[in-house]
Amino acid sequence: MRRARPVLLSVGVLMALMGMLWIGQGLGYIHWPESSFMLDQRPWADRGVVLAVAGLLLILVARRLRR
After folding, report:
1. Which keywords, in A-to-Z order, does the entry hold (predicted)?
2. Which of 3, 13, 22, 55 has the fewest Cβ atoms within 10 Å of its own Cβ atom?
3. Are 48 and 19 in contact (CB under 8 A)?
4. What is the pLDDT of residues 16-54, one digit of tens each?
């Protein structure tokens, strides 16, 4: 159980950062090349919100675990 906390924190941070990247792309702050698969912006922003919230929930769960 001691090893679960750092793993959950790492995965949660990575998920939150990836979600924020997708949100930024979906809102037009990040521009991908024309050959990118992320050209349709609105669905990627929605998926980014889900991913970022899931990552933040993982971080909260990991913080509740004993050290």
Report:
1. Membrane, Transmembrane, Transmembrane helix
2. 3
3. yes
4. 999 998 888 877 777 766 666 656 677 878 888 999 999
> One-letter amino acid identity for 24?
G
Q: If you search the block for the tokens 């090349």, which residue do you land on?
A: 33
Check: pTM over 0.70? Answer yes or no: yes
Residue with tokens 């979906």, as numbered in its chain: 26
Q: How many CB atoms are located within 10 Å of the residue 43 CB?
A: 11
Say which residue the tokens 């698969």 belong to.
Answer: 37
